[in-house]
Design goal:
single chain, flat
Length: 154
């Protein structure tokens, strides 16, 4: 795939030279992931968020609608509803940090098919999460949100 260790090493070198304390979380992807995991990204990965270590807040989040739609169809839930829940989860990471996961609600780490049909009230942020996100937003001098939707259908 053209992304070998030397490419990743250079990308890390360039990123670490930025005047930011970035939290880099190296994980296998592309050809390396295919060798290690048998796939370029595990099927249960529905989204990712990149977080700046200095602030503990994210600067980019993305979701994978094709994976989410497949899970929704397997579990018998509305794909649009599940995509919205994953988007909310990734926005949570933008404000709570990439490493944060809650014991219940929308910020759970694991979303097996067996729980995707839960009631809407089971897919909320906790009061503590809501408070932390409100404080994070209040402490930001400038917040800019851009949602880019690029969904290709066959």
């Amino acid at each position: 795939d053209g992304i070998g260790p030397e490419v990743m090493a250079e990308a890390e070198r360039v990123l670490r030279a930025l005047p930011l304390d970035l939290e880099l979380d190296p994980r296998p992807f592309g050809g390396g992931a295919i060798k290690e995991l048998g796939t370029s990204l595990p099927d249960e990965t529905y989204g990712v968020t990149y977080v700046v270590r200095d602030t503990g807040r994210g600067w980019l989040a993305t979701v994978f609608p094709d994976r989410i739609e497949s899970a929704a169809l397997r579990a018998g839930v509305d794909p649009g509803t599940l995509i919205g829940r994953v988007m909310a989860h990734e926005v949570g990471h933008l404000l709570l940090g990439a490493g944060y996961h809650g014991p219940a609600g929308v910020m759970m780490a694991e979303w097996p098919d067996s729980i995707l049909h839960r009631r809407p009230s089971d897919w909320r942020f906790s009061m503590a999460e809501s408070d932390r996100m409100q404080r994070a937003l209040a402490s930001s001098q400038e917040v800019s949100w851009t949602v880019v939707w690029n969904r290709q259908r066959s």
